Amino acid sequence: MSKMKVGVIGCGSIAKHRHLPEYANNKEVEIVAVCDIVEDRVHEFAKEYSAKAYTSYEELLASPDVDAVSVCTPNYLHAPVSIAALQAGKHVLCEKPMATSRADAEKMIATAKESNKKLMIAHNQRFVPSHQKARQLIENGEVGKIYSFRTAFGHGGPERWSADGEVSWFFKKDEAFIGAMGDLGVHKTDLLRFILGEEFVEVGAFVETSAKQNADVDDTAVCVLKSESGIIGTLAASWSYVSKEDNSTIIYGENAILRLEDDPVNSLVVQYKNGEVVKYELGGIQTNEAGGQNNTQVIDQFVNAILQDVEPPVSGEEGMKSLQVVLSALESNETKRITSL
Fold first, then answer.
1. 3 state DSSP class of 338
2. How many angstroms separate the CA atoms of 329 and 341, rounded?
3. Where in this chain does the record put each Gfo/Idh/MocA-like oxidoreductase N-terminal domain (predicted)?
């Protein structure tokens, strides 16, 4: 069988560190096209991966050689580029947040159905081994009733990670739409929905721009979330954690406390009510630090969904539900009221 031919639209850091190397490592895939408006950047990646360089995504999408694309553009382009790609008959893996409004997310989902093409959103936290194990322990009843949680995703900011540093689109409201809540918070809304197996019904939030002088988007947010069964907890997303990155989640249950990515060695620590402690060394979570990169599984899952003709594990509908929690948090902050989802 011939290899699946993919293109990557947007050659910033997420493409450089995640999408391109993970496609290159998948034996079912051939990278045939890369696109970016920065000519030097796109030609560098085209040379590295023996792909054709484009500075216009429309021209890339017109190519009959491309079967699927990753959309790794600034947030405001996620929906229009994904919709154009689906209409052009390409399968789409879109970076998070999938869109900047519910209406755009719904249009992406509808277009995928109309074109009979796969749409997957790149929420990688579901595939982290400790998170998979926690979901399993909750599903099989070992933790008992879940009472509460707290989760955080914070680091020093995208200037350390983005290809454009301090002048990155991440800080510009017209291109990013949302800041830390869209960059980091949406990962955690998706993760919590996945681990708890429930939807959120209410959210209250404080969202601030306090750490980044050059930003007109949020850089620090704290939310209180309530699920349909009454589980309550907090979610923090921040670009103001100036030292070590925090990507931890703690679940408080009837029979045990689950500590996820809270210990540098044991990625899951289960503290049982009877005093027993079980430590799982399952391999680290994805980080932006040196040596922290390996396979996120996002690319492999996307490719598998296409080749096996199955629903992607993070569908457009799933991406939209995780986005809606973030949109509701922004609404709560603006109205100073609890928002119902």
1. coil
2. 10
3. 4-123
CA-to-CA dists, residue 45 to 24, 91, 142, 158, 325, angstroms: 12, 21, 47, 21, 35
- Which residue, chain included where needed, has tokens 């109309």? 114
**Position 61: which residue type?**
L
The percent of residues above 70 in pLDDT, for the chain, comes to 96
Average pLDDT of the residues in 268-288: 87
Neighbour count for residue 259 (Cβ, 10 Å): 21
Separation between Cα atoms, residue 7 and residue 316, nearest integer Å = 20
Question: 1 pLDDT band (50/70/90 cuts)?
Answer: low
More confident residue, 271 or 293: 271
Both tokens of 205, joined, read 């939030």
Report the distance separating Cα 108 and Cα 99, nearest Å. Answer: 9
Decide: helix, strand or coil at residue 75: helix
